[in-house]
Amino acid sequence: MQTTTLFRITNFELFAKPNKYVMGFGLVAITACVSYIAYMNTR
Question: What is the pTM of this model?
């Protein structure tokens, strides 16, 4: 499949191998952000 450099840059996740460490960190960060927002809304 022929692709352009612009396509590879804008769709990086299609060409990068899944990384469990980055995924885990992102999941923890998103969970912390949502939890903090929920906590601030209850106060």
Answer: 0.57
